[in-house]
Sequence to fold (107 residues):
Amino acid sequence: MQRLIKYRLRAIIAPAVFLGITYYFGWNAIHGKSGLEAQQVQKTELAQATAQYQTVHAERQAWQTKIADLSGQSIHPDMLDEQARAVLNLADPGDIVIDLSTGRAAE
Fold:
């Protein structure tokens, strides 16, 4: 009887160990720090970072274009005049100015 128990126990131990190892690696493949769930989170973070990069890159390009246009080597007098008028809230004496804030459009 004892021999039969030892024989069956030996027959069960090896498959149980291999099933335990398989379970361990399978669980880590899905839930581990490099598993499928972690990869999905990383893909989401990458998409968010890429979108943020695109926004910042476009803003930087706009600023670089504006700076290049206002630099001393390639300054456009019209653009400089427009920027100065906008900042100082002034108009040229030869300009025609229409005040739209009075609300008298029917006259």
